[in-house]
Amino acid sequence: MGIPVEEAIKQVQTMDRNVLLDARNVTMQFGGLIAVNDVSLQVHSGEIVGLIGPNGAGKTTFFNCLTGLYKPTFGTVTFDGKPLPPKPRMVVREGMARTFQNIRLFHNMTAIENVMVGMYTRTHTSAIDAVFRLPRHRHEEIASTRRAQELLEFVGLTGVGDTLSRNLPYGDQRRLEIARALATEPKLLLLDEPTAGMNPQETRQAEELIFKIRDLGLAVLVIEHDMRFIFNLCDRVSCLVRGAVLVEGPGEVVQNDPRVIEAYIGSPATPPAPTTDSAGGAADA
Amino acid sequence: MDLFFQQLINGLSLGALYALIAVGYTVVYGIVQLINFAHGEIFMVGAFGAYATWMVMGQPANLSVGMALGVVLPLMLVGGVVSSVVVALLTERVAYRPLRNAPRLAPLISAIGVSVFLQEFVRLFYGTIPFVTRIPGWPDAKSAVPFPSISGISDASVQIGGVLVQASALFTLLALVVCTVFLWFFVNRTKTGRAMVATSQDPDTARLMGINVDRVIVAAFAVGAGLAAIAGVAHGLRYGNIDFRMGFLAGLKAFTAAVLGGIGNINGAVVGGLVLGVVEALASNYLGTTAWKDVWAFALLILVLVFRPQGLLGAKVVDRA
Q: Tens digit of pLDDT for each residue in A12-26?
């Protein structure tokens, strides 16, 4: 399965676990709203990092800053030793790929065509080659079809290559999105809630798939709400609350941090504060 | 019966002309959701570009068929395509790109402005160095300009039974077939084509797949303009003259054809063009005089919009749930 892919990526694996993504003090303001506030995050190659936080904490906005969809108001993002280029398409070329919280496939293309769109930056055929069916075009066409097939198998989609992507079951659409992201030959894969709407069994399969991707030597940054999933999976977890990093560290540490529990579930029942004080206290919070 | 087949052939060749222009409307709409109302003028510019090429070549006339079809016509086509593409890309850059994120009405109005601008520009400045001098020997475009006759096309025809087929009609049909095949390969077999389909379905995601959306939009305008220029030359050969107003009605008809076939759908534009041409030819023959042909063409549009608003083939490329 996927021998050329694995070969190519093995080389990356043998390198040191260097810092792949280095986001420093990233701040994103929309008018008066600070969606992401001074967030710093590092991802090393071959590492799975989790990003958690309650709804509206700014996780997806932070992703958008990383992929060039938004330009951070302050702060710098360095990817693979270079400053992040300003346009999404250039970010892809540098080796960063993502999936979406709400699936965004090309719905009227078949599964395999979706994956082949992902290969866009890595292929070269021109119109002339295609019209006259020059050998270069034929070879590239065969090679990219084969590789797309391999990628589909890699994510566990066999025999659905010619199905329109909108007709695939939900779980398969999620896998297809991952296959399409892998087709861009990334060094870092950003997954935005990959298990949203999945049943426990599908979640387990997704977990295995992400480990498999890590084993190819890719780094993975994943946003998720499913706590068991994220703490099983991640080497490190960062918790975002109201746009800022609350805690960062190994899974066990973050999991047991009282502030994280408070952010998600609310503070444990404490006796109400003295009545004279309560108005001022609420305003401060 | 001969009359029926005669009208059918006339309709098909007229329809092929509409289809070549309609593709430009549909491709651009599929990608940027803009009805490019200046597209008819791009067609007109193509015809004038071809004419200018002929002037620059020294107005070759009375040529052998081989010279005319092998050298002069191809060069005129190239000249027409180049001028159309250049003008289309300029308008995209100047009039549409700055409005990319504006409400959809803004680029539409901008397109109408471009349309009027191009008509008047050709009317006032064709055959001149603008504001300086007329180029001696060039006709001005204030009235119709006789299109050069190409031996083997302008003067030739084939008799099949009782049906007379003009060579210019064959040229138009042949041009449509060749362009459609080329377009099919371009969309389905090339990287840019695949990027176009992806962009029409979801531009943001396409960007995140490394696709240069700006370049895809430019390609869409260029492809549409190229086909429109070929249609412009075909129009010149068919009617024997060109004028600065020719893009208005032809553009409107081609737009109708694109809507008829399902706007955003390339096959739809081709089918819509042919259907419209045939309906026009047959209706003008059987239902009243030729003066009524526009009535039937637009009546057909109204009927399709009422009963099948997605067009004959459905708007396949455009889907925005």
A: 444 456 889 999 999
Q: Which residues, 6+ apart, have CB-to-CB distance to B133 below 8 Å?
A: none
Q: B143 to chain A nearest CA, in Å?
A: 39
**Chain A residues with CB-CB distance to B197 below 8 A:** 106, 109
Q: For B205, which of A104, A108, A116 is closest by C-beta distance?
A: A104
The sheet carrying A74-79 orders its strands as: A33-44, A19-30, A74-79, A82-83
Tokens, residue B92: 């995209």
Identify which of B91, B99, B145, B97 has the alpha carbon closest to the alpha carbon of residue B115.
B91
**Helical ranges in B190-245 per DSSP H:** 191-201, 203-208, 213-239
Going from the C-alpha of B124 to that of each of B44, B47, B53, B216, B248, the distances in angstroms are 14, 16, 19, 33, 17
Subunit contact A127:B185, Cβ cutoff 8 A: yes
- The continuous run of DSSP H or E covering A93 comes out as helix A88-94
What's the rounded Cα separation, in Å, for the pair A194 and A216? 19
Angle between helices B191-201 and B167-189 (to 10 degrees): 80
| Contact state of A131 with B208 under an 8 Å Cβ cutoff | no
CA distance B90 to B133: 24
User: CB B195 to CB A120 under 8 A?
Assistant: yes
Give me the residue spans of the domains in chain A.
1-95+186-268, 106-178
Q: Does B198 touch chain A (CB under 8 A)?
A: yes
Q: Name the strand (E) or helix (H) holding A39.
A: strand A33-44
CB burial readout A1-14, b (16+ within 10 A) else e:
ebeebeeebeebee
The span from the CA of B266 to the CA of B268, in Å, is 5
What is each CA distance from A67 to A33, A61, A79, A97, in whole angstroms? 21, 10, 10, 8
Asked whether the ipTM of the predicted complex exceeds the cut of 0.90, the reply is no
Which chain B residues touch A104 with a CB distance below 8 Å?
A: 202, 204-205
Chunked mean pLDDT (size 10), chain B, 321 residues: 89 96 94 92 96 92 86 95 97 94 91 95 89 84 88 85 90 95 88 89 88 92 96 94 93 94 91 94 85 87 88 61 30
From the list B206, B209, B321, the residue facing A184 with the nearest CB is B209
Inter-residue contact B194 to B38 (CB < 8 Å)? no
Fold of the domain built from segment(s) A1-95+186-268: Rossmann fold (3.40.50)
Residue A232 and residue A219 in contact, taking contact as beta carbons nearer than 8 Å: no
Does CATH number 1.10.3470 belong to domain B2-255? Answer: yes
Amino acid, single-letter form, for residue B251: G
